[in-house]
Amino acid sequence: MAAKKHRIRISKDECKGCRRCIPACPKKLISVGKEINIQGYLAVVAENPFDCIGCGSCFHQCPEPGAITIFEIEE
């Protein structure tokens, strides 16, 4: 049986730039982006989203529902 694979997706327009997810990620996949979103915040971005291990730490630190989604993907 193959190991489960995951992907992180960050909704740029839902993010309020609190950055609580950045230190929560054990793989250091999240960083501050370079674009201002529609709410006027500097949103975070996921670097190498397919390197996500699916731990959910970033998701649980995020105060904005819908800003971070973790998917289990088929390989």
Chart the SSEs and their pairings.
Blueprint: E1 5-10, H1 21-24, E2 30-36, E3 42-46, H2 57-61, E4 68-73
Antiparallel strand pairs: 1-4, 2-3
**C-alpha Rg (nearest Å):** 12 Å
Structural class: mainly beta
Q: What portion of residues is helical?
A: 10-25%
How many structural domains in the coordinates? Answer: 1
| CA-based shape | elongated
- Oligomeric state of this protein: single chain
Kindly report the spatial arrangement of strands forming the biggest sheet.
1-4
What is the name of the CATH topology?
Alpha-Beta Plaits
| Helix and strand element order | EHEEHE
Unreliable residue stretches? none
Mean pLDDT across the residues is 94
Distance between the termini: 11 Å
Total of helices: 2
CATH architecture heading: 2-Layer Sandwich
Number of strands: 4
CATH class, please? Alpha Beta
Beta fraction: 25-35%
Largest sheet: 2 strands, antiparallel
